[in-house]
Every structure is written in structure tokens, then in C-alpha cells.
User: Which sequence fits this backbone?
């Protein structure tokens, strides 16, 4: 199945999840790296909140980085980046993506907004320690899990590791990984992969 694919993203933000997935799948795609699209009417036609990433696959547009990565891997099952729907391994994919996004990434994003994205008058410093507690609780679960498995859905790398790895990488940049040696080693394994799109400089 060869559909024309255009990914809209910017730098090492969440769009890098989609870019890494496309590269691992070995697909031809056009990448529009343009942060100035954020909030524009043009982007809102594809992503109703005007956020990046968005993707057009065979003339149809989609948004949400995790949903995009999952769909791309489902389109090309022969690439073995995702398990078949209805299997235990696929349930683990859904589980760990939901976990990373709701139990860790939401708090990382909230802290970033309250530190530097929102205008000063909208920032609430009191949310920062509360968010940190939640992030640490989530990372503790990943630390325990990765003690017994190399990757999140089993012994082999999968798209789940691209999605959750991005959240872990963000946790590292925000200074939360110091007390998590197992998660840190996992992230290093991801960074070592040739096609990883969010390697440290
Ligand atoms: N849940 C969305 C989040 C999208 C998102 O917040 N993107 C950021 C860049 S990483 C953005 O466009 N921010 C602009 C804004 O919040 O106005 C996803 O994973 O795709």
C-alpha cells in the first residue's frame, strides 16, 4: 500500500515521535518542519486546536502523535513495529501509551506551561511540586517494569518505545531521571538506535 504521506511538525517536539516511526517503517514521506503553522487557520483544518503534529495520509488528515504512530504501524504490519489488535502485546501497547500520556506527559506539559509557556500572570507556581510528585510516581512504575523487560511490550523494540521513549526523554530534559537508573539505561538504548529523532546534542 503506497499512500502519499505529509507530516507537519517542528523540531524535537511530539512530531519527532511520528518522524521516527516513519523512518523505522522505511516509508517515503514529505516532512514540513514549520513551527509557525501553530495556531493558524491552515493547521486548524487538520488539527482543530492548531497544534503540531498533523499528518496527511493518502489525502486524509489525522492528529495526535500517538494515534498517528499507531495507525502508521497498523498500515504496515509486515514491518513488525506493532502487535496485532486483540493480542496481549497489543494491549500492552495501549496500556503503556495511555499511562505515559496521562500519568507522566500531561504533568510535564503542565509544568512547562506554568514555567515558561503561559504569560506570567497565568502561571501558578504551586502546581509545579504537585506535578513533580505525579511524574515521579509514573517514572517509578516504569523503573519497576523495565527491571524485568528490555522494552515495554517484550524483548523487542516496538513503536510503544518510540511513544513512551519521547515522554521519558522529556522527563530527562526536565531533570526528573536522576533517581531512575533503569529508565535512564532504557533511554540510552533508544538514543543508540540509528533513526532516533530525539537524541541529546
Ligand atoms: N496531544 C498532542 C499534543 C500536541 C501539542 O501540544 N503540540 C505542541 C508542540 S509539541 C504544540 O503544537 N503546541 C502549541 C500550543 O500548545 O499552542 C499530540 O501528542 O499530538
Assistant:
Amino acid at each position: 500500500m503506497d499512500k502519499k504521506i505529509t507530516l507537519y511538525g517542528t523540531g524535537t517536539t511530539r512530531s519527532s515521535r511520528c518522524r521516527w516511526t516513519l523512518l523505522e517503517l522505511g516509508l517515503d514521506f514529505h516532512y514540513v518542519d514549520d513551527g509557525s503553522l501553530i495556531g493558524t487557520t491552515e493547521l486548524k483544518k487538520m488539527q482543530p486546536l492548531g497544534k503540531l503534529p498533523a499528518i496527511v495520509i493518502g489525502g486524509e488528515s489525522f492528529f495526535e502523535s500517538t494515534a498517528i504512530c499507531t495507525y502508521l504501524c497498523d498500515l504496515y504490519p509486515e514491518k513488525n513495529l506493532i502487535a496485532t489488535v486483540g493480542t496481549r502485546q497489543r494491549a500492552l501497547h495501549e496500556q503503556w501509551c495511555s499511562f505515559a500520556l496521562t500519568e507522566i506527559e500531561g504533568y510535564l506539559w503542565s509544568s512547562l506551561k506554568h514555567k515558561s509557556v503561559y504569560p506570567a500572570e497565568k502561571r501558578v507556581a504551586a502546581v509545579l511540586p504537585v506535578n513533580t510528585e505525579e511524574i515521579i510516581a509514573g517514572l517509578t512504575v516504569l523503573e519497576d517494569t523495565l527491571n524485568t523487560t528490555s522494552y515495554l511490550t517484550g524483548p523487542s523494540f516496538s513503536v510503544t518505545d518510540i511513544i513512551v521513549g519521547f515522554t521519558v526523554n522529556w522527563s530527562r530534559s526536565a531533570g526528573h531521571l536522576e533517581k531512575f537508573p533503569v529508565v535512564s539505561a532504557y533511554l540510552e538504548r533508544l538514543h543508540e538506535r540509528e533513526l532516533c529523532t530525539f537524541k541529546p546534542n
